[in-house]
Amino acid sequence: MSTKKQAPRVGFVSLGCPKAASDAESILTRLRAEGYEVAPNYEGADLVVVNTCGFIDAAVEESLDAIGEALAENGKVIVTGCLGAKKDSAGRGIVEQVHPKVLAVTGPHATEEVMAAVHQYLPKLHDPFADLVPPQGVRLTPDHYAYLKISEGCNHRCSFCIIPSLRGDLLSRPIHEVLREAETLVKSGVNELLVISQDTSAYGVDVKYRTGFSNGRPVKTKLYDLCKELGELDVWVRLHYVYPYPSVDDIIPLMAEGKILPYLDVPFQHANPRILKAMKRPASAENNLERIRRWREICPDITIRSTFIAGFPGETEQEFEELLEFLGEAQLDRVGCFAYSPVEGATANALPGALPDEVREERKRRLMEFQEDISTQRLEAKIGREIVVLVDDIDEDEGAICRSEGDAPEIDGLVIVPEGRDMEIGKFYQVRVTDCDVHDLYAEPIWAAEE
Ligand code: SF4
Q1: I want to staple 39 with a disulfide (CB 3.0 to 4.6 A). Which of 9, 110, 213, 369 is the partner?
Q2: Which residues of 88-119 are buried (b: 16+ CB within 10 A; e: fewer)?
Q3: Rounded Cα gap, residues 240 and 199, in angstroms
Q4: pLDDT tens, the chain, 451 aa long
Q5: Residue from 274, 361, 289 nearest 325 by CA
Q6: What distance in Å separates the CA atoms of residue 14 and residue 4, rounded to the nearest whole number?
């Protein structure tokens, strides 16, 4: 007896102009490449895709009729094409209003979104010979946390950096693809998503914040919308490489509501306006102290980490001291500092006033020493508090090696729970902070939190 499963079958109805036909070809090619069969009629199909036209009234009618027929004959219908993008004067989708039972609606040129909807409602057959990797891909991180890359490249040209010349301008990944990856990771057991890119706050700028579709709903390619969606996944969501643009202010309430972690990794790099200008930093004209104050007003528990460069070409002693003053006022939780290093090809190397190695290193050391007290005081303020931690490892001597909401893996501190040897790696627990040193917190377990 053969145990071979039958391939999932998709019915396809295509209306409209040659551009719509070309979209249809691209979707059909993807379906066939992924092992779906194309059904010749409604009865033989597990699901139907209707590619619509919305050009003139007659075409709209024809498309709506075709959707109605597919719903009546089959029941599982995904709509794509021009009519899918059409809205009434109140901004409501025409298709959704006439046929609320459709599973998903996308606009034209949306092969990826259509395939995402097909995968959701009619999963591919798992073929162990073709699918040699698990759905979440091969990852280098532990099972319980994962990096989620949302874009590649960068539109800025910071004078000390050569990344744009290596990786090109900003290219945002389609929102549905990012969200699908996040969902797959969470299903595979990931409890913490680390959102990364070169410039996270710029997500979607290159595609003019285009509306994509995820799980049949329109979602903008924008950091706020992404955070909102990720916030529904019920895992820790941590943002890295966020520049202090005014638009970031909108995300802080999501942190205060507990949707995403109250944590921001903001690479300020310097505080003196002349140096920031010479660095060509994004958002260099913003009043960062004022911004930080406002963030803390909205979300008092926010952890802010940042990185700085000491000894940038031309930096005077006074300008460096201004940076220390900024740190004194900003009271950042975590700080990393690099002595300026002339990367080959960076335009900053041509700036006048290059400083000797010893001066750059000495300023870096002074900055780190200055910050050490601030970071320690901020950790001390947590002693006695109950916090949630995620267990990264169990060490027979030290106990459970965990992290709090304020600690990103690899770069921040740890929460060490000496009595936590029975805790499980990758799970959340409630603990009480008992002590701290310069980088880490020490805590005792209270009870095992829900997964
Ligand atoms: S340092 Fe500047 S140029 Fe380099 S990746 Fe970051 S924002 Fe872009």
Answers
A1: 9
A2: eeeeebbbbeebeebbbbbbbbbbbbbbbbbe
A3: 9
A4: 444 568 899 999 888 777 777 788 888 888 888 888 888 788 889 999 999 887 777 888 889 999 999 999 999 999 998 888 888 777 788 899 999 999 999 888 888 889 888 988 888 776 555 566 666 667 678 899 999 999 988 998 999 988 888 888 999 999 999 999 999 999 999 999 999 999 999 999 999 999 988 877 889 999 999 999 999 999 999 999 999 888 899 999 999 999 999 999 999 999 999 999 999 987 666 689 999 999 999 999 999 999 999 999 999 999 999 999 999 999 999 999 999 988 888 899 999 999 999 999 999 999 999 999 999 999 999 999 999 999 999 999 999 999 999 999 989 999 999 999 999 999 999 999 999 998 999 999 996 544 4
A5: 289
A6: 31
Query: Pocket around ligand 1: residues whose beta carbon is below 6 Å from it?
Result: 154, 156-158, 161, 163-164, 198-199, 282
Are the C-beta atoms of 212 and 218 separated by less than 8 Å? yes
Phi then psi for residue 152, to 5 deg, are -130, 155
Half-sphere exposure of 116 (CA within 13 A, CB side): 25
- Distance (Å, whole) CA 284 – CA 32: 50
Contact (CB, 8 A) for 226 and 211: no
**Residue whose CB lies within 8 A of the most ligand 1 atoms, among 149, 150, 158, 281, for a mutation test:** 158
Unique residue bearing structure tokens 């300023």: 363
User: pTM for the complete prediction?
Assistant: 0.74
* Cα Rg of the chain (Å, integer): 26
Greatest extent of the chain over all pairs of C-alpha atoms, in Å: 83
What the block records as the tokens of 322 is 């201004």
Rounded distance, CA 276 to CA 264, Å? 20
Token couple for 382: 């947590």
| β-bridge pairing 192-196 and 145-149 | parallel
The β-bridge relationship of strands 441-448 and 428-436 is antiparallel
- Pair of tokens at residue 312: 């940038």
Other Cβ atoms within 10 Å of 4 Cβ, number: 6
Query: Per-residue b/e over 274-290, b at no fewer than 16 CB within 10 Å?
Result: ebbebbebbbbebebee
Regarding beta strands 217-220 and 211-214, do their DSSP bridges make them parallel or antiparallel, or are they unpaired?
antiparallel
Q: Whose CA is nearest to atom 6 of ligand 1?
A: 198
Ligand 1: centre distance to CA 167 (Å): 11
Point out the annotated binding site for [4Fe-4S] cluster. 17, 53, 82, 154, 158, 161
